[in-house]
Amino acid sequence: MRKTLRWLRDKFQRNIQVRLTCYFLLILLPLVLVSLFANERSQQILVEQAAERSRLALNSAMDYIDLTLQSVEELSTLISTDSELIGTLSRNGRELTPRAVMDFSQMMKQLSNMNSINHIAAQISIYHYPSTRMFSTNYGTRYLDKSQQEFMQSMTLRNGTGILYMLPGEIIYGSTTFGELMNSDSVTLVRSMDLYNPLREQNVLLVTLNKTRLLNLIKPLLPSPQTKIYLTNANNNLIAGISQEGETRDKYLPSEPDMLSVTITSNTSNWKLTMMQPKSELYSKTEQVKLYTYGIITISILLALWISWIVYTGIASPLQKLSHGIKRLGSGKLSIQLENRRRDEFGYLTEAFNQMAQQQKHLIEDHYEQELRLAKTELKFLQSQINPHFLYNTLDSIYWTAKNYEADEISEMVLNLSRFFRLSLNKGREVFSVEESFAHLHYYIRIQQIRFLENFEVQYRMEDETKGIPLLKLLLQPLVENAILHGMDGKEDGGRLVVSSRLEEGFLVLEVKDNGSGIPQERLAYIQEELGRLHRRKGKLYSLDEEGVDDLFGLRNVVSRIKLYYGGSAELSIDSSEGGGTCTALKLPLVRCREDFSPGADSMIDYKEETGT
Q1: Residue 499: beta bridge partners?
Q2: CB 344 within 8 A of CB 365
Q3: Where does the chain hold its CATH 3.30.565.10 domain(s)?
Q4: Which of 123, 221, 493, 534 has its CA 20 to 30 A from that of 430?
Q5: pLDDT at position 384 over 80
């Protein structure tokens, strides 16, 4: 199976004709589906309409059957409560006396008269318990054996004053059926005599229904030769069944998938009337439309295959020519040019191939020149790496010369400057830990302390949790420079600079505090306004060289860097009061404090988040 699927996929991917054929067939697919759906739906509608018609007819027939049963039950009530019949049964015992013969003859005459009035009753029988005789309008009088007597007694006790319908096929004892007892193949109504007497004898009235009459009631409902109708009781036991050929059914057959089955249940007797009709008879009316539909689908598919072949032959020639040209170009024939006289898309494609081949030739010819330029660029890059090393090596030489002349302050400044540059290079790393950043910053601060004649001291407050957090290098240096130049300038002694780090609600907070003269309110408002403007720039990456900017270069630099590297949630804030010193704080999100800084990707993520793109 997998090999077959792989072969079909390769054919689809490699063969344009196969793809075109599939595309044309896909265009036909909605038409085919709609046609098949319409055909199927028409058949469903036919079935639904036939089922509805059958249901209405069965309802009418079931109503008539209920009326018939009602008349039979009324007849049974009339007989079972007839005082003359009850008296005849009560005054005669087991012995058959001449008086009993006359009484029973009169009873049989009366029953025959009642039977002749009601044509639905095939026979009326009475079981006389004392004499164990069965009196019937059909076969006269006969004795019941012991098993038959026991059955009649148990049925009387079980049924009470109610009505029971017994089917001829029900087993009463051994292999004997109720139909054999009654000499009938039809359903029989059974009820006790003398209904309103609680001390009544176990005499039984049996009214057998005329099966032919029942069949005549349901036979007109048959719509086709293969249709069958079944009349069953609540337990699906067959009462009567017939087909249009006149064939009677002695066994109820359950519905099959290819048959339309409609069942109606009586609300009074719980009898069921079921009609089963072959669906093929219903579908015969739509077979011609179905054949037309299949014919149209077949013709459409053949047309699709033919049109796809015509289209394929129209494009195969230029494609083969183009494929041949590509192979020659791949083999190294760069001067190849294909003849092109077409004005359609294939002509444009051929012209594009010719231009590509020519450009490819020029690109290969220019390759060696580009290689030379690349070599020169790499050489210049190596030379640019030599210059910083030369600088701090030279500073190291100056340091030792100052030591030789015992110029301690100069030698210390040069030493700190050399260490500052050496750590700044740091093998090209862009990131320090917070602890390394403070150590790097200390070299710069020490140079400034010597410059300002030790008129200020520095304190470092670094929480242990922050020591290993990655931090962009040289981020704090502009802030410390501002604090020293603008805060410590003019102080002869007593200056204090505090550099601290801490964690606060998912942010790394870095602060630079001084106890200098502070910033005037007007100047502070201007600085805060400029910083706020930079922070509010949504949906736009940050530039370090804007037009019209002539101050606050260090702060702008820091804001641009933290926004570029740490995203829009990074902040720089300044708080100051005249004579009370200045506090500059950086808030950096911890999720962005990592070793693999990628300013292009991070800033683009912020750009998409802010613009909603």
Answers
A1: 460, 512
A2: no
A3: 429-611
A4: 534
A5: no
Q: Which residues are 450's β-sheet partners?
A: none
Are the C-beta atoms of residues 302 and 18 closer than 8 Å to each other? no
At 311, give phi and psi (nearest 5°).
-65, -40
Q: How far apart are the C-alpha atoms of 49 and 282, rounded to whole Å?
A: 10
Neighbour count for residue 304 (Cβ, 10 Å): 19
Task: Confirm or reject CATH 3.30.450.20 for domain 49-281, answering yes or no.
Answer: yes
Radius of gyration from C-alpha coordinates of the chain: 56
Q: Is the pLDDT of residue 500 over 90?
A: yes
User: What's the rounded Cα separation, in Å, for the pair 80 and 84?
Assistant: 10
More confident position, 345 or 433: 433
The closest alpha carbon to 155, from 202, 209, 199, 222, belongs to 202
Say if residue 204 is exposed, middle or buried (CB neighbours under 10 Å; 0-12, 13-18, 19+).
buried
Segment (H or E) for 140: strand 140-143
Residue with tokens 């040209």: 325
CA dist 407 to 51, 416, 449, 465, Å?
A: 117, 14, 16, 41
417 CB contacts (<8 Å, ≥6 apart)? 395, 443, 447
Q: What is the DSSP letter of 252?
A: P
SS3 content of the chain, % helix, strand, coil (to 5): 55, 20, 25
Who contacts 377 (Cβ-Cβ below 8 Å, separation ≥6)?
Answer: none
* Closest to 133 (Cα-Cα) out of 106, 101, 163: 101
Task: Please tell me the pTM assigned to this model.
Answer: 0.46
Instruction: With both helix axes pointing from N to C terminus, report the angle between 345-404 and 287-330 in degrees, rounded to the nearest 10.
Output: 50
CATH architecture of 429-611: 2-Layer Sandwich (3.30)
Cα distance from N-terminal residue to C-terminal residue, the chain: 45
CB 456 within 8 A of CB 484: yes
Mean pLDDT for 205-233 is: 86
pLDDT digits (tens, 9 = 90+) for 87-132: 888 888 888 788 888 888 888 898 888 888 888 888 999 998 888 8
- The rounded distance, in Å, linking the Cα atoms of 411 and 396 is 9
Average pLDDT, the chain: 79
pLDDT at 75 over 70: yes
Higher per-residue confidence, 606 vs 257: 257
Q: What are phi and psi of 323, to 5 degrees?
A: -60, -40
CA distance 480 to 485: 9
Residue 602: its pLDDT value, please? 47
According to the model, what pLDDT value does residue 246 have? 45
**How far is the CA of 176 from the CAs of 155, 179, 183, in angstroms?**
15, 8, 12
Tokens of 413: 């400044």
Counting residues of the chain whose pLDDT is more than 70, the rounded percentage is 80
Are the CB atoms for 511 and 584 separated by under 8 Å? Answer: yes
Q: DSSP characters for 290-338?
A: HHHHHHHHHHHHHHHHHHHHHHHHHHHHHHHHHHHHHHHHHTT-TT---
Residue 348 has pLDDT above 90, yes or no: no
Q: What are phi and psi of 239, to 5 degrees?
A: -100, -45
- Where helices occur in 209-272 by DSSP H, the ranges are 211-218
User: Do the beta carbons of residue 104 and residue 229 sit within 8 Å?
Assistant: no
Rounded alpha-carbon distances, angstroms, from residue 440 to 99, 479, 571, 572, 596: 142, 14, 23, 21, 20
